[in-house]
Amino acid sequence: MKLTPELLSRSSSSINTLKDRSLDLRGLKIPAIENLGVTHDQNDSIDFTDNDIRYLGNFPLLSQLKHLQLGNNLISRIDSRLGYSLPALHSLDLTNNSISDLAEVGHLSRCTRLEYLCLMGNPVSREKNYRDFVIWKLPQVRVLDYQRIRDKERALAKELMETEEGRPTELAASILKDSEASAMDVDDVGKKKTFEPGRLNGSSRRLLSAEERRAIEDAIEKSESLDEIRRLEEQLKMGHTFAGSS
């Protein structure tokens, strides 16, 4: 069932026990988040539990929204700009989804007010160094998977993931992978060449134009899977661009 303006207008919105206005969209087989602009940013909480959502993104600016429940969906990708769309996001429940890449979790770093995060039941939560990486990458989070983060854990995570110079260690670089690692200058840490999204065909001289960069961002935004994103990256490495694509 598509998340249409009509469906949103029919959905229940009420004041919960925390005195927050909550929008109930549970169990509707919604495949994608869309059309939330019609809510006029009136909700403190939205419950998307038990749907078919694959991508955590496509939010308009919702300055009021503090809590998101997204348990039991199919989410594998997280919008790197989520923090700009949801600047007040305080708690995020992603229990039992399909996130398998720690770099996707790293996209939550711009959610500067996020304090409560649950990723239990995702493939990523079974990765080695999962908890250490999340604690290091998201220092604003106080409670991860219903366990309070202790100062000792933070110190250990920083020791594992960050050098004395404040750069990612080789372990952190291997987790962040090409696109995010290059943005954090891990060439000096890992001593290996990485692909920079702003350059064509691995060149250190040929920068993308603003038009080419927008076209690439649009292509990635419209992609349906991680495999499709990887294919786009491979095409970029070959020197292809997406300028003028629809």
From TrEMBL:
GO BP term, pick one: mRNA splicing, via spliceosome
A GO CC annotation given for this chain: spliceosomal complex
GO molecular function: U2 snRNA binding
Every U2A'/phosphoprotein 32 family A C-terminal domain range: 127-145
This protein's record includes keyword Repeat: yes
Compartments, as annotated in UniProt: Nucleus
The entry's keywords: Leucine-rich repeat, mRNA processing, mRNA splicing, Nucleus, Repeat, Spliceosome
Key word Repeat present: yes
Matches recorded under InterPro entries: Leu-rich_rpt, Leu-rich_rpt_typical-subtyp, LRR_dom_sf, RU2A, U2A'_phosphoprotein32A_C
Family: Belongs to the U2 small nuclear ribonucleoprotein A family.
UniProt name for this protein: U2 small nuclear ribonucleoprotein A'
Native source species: Kalmanozyma brasiliensis (strain GHG001) (Yeast)
High-level lineage: Eukaryota, Fungi, Dikarya, Basidiomycota, Ustilaginomycotina
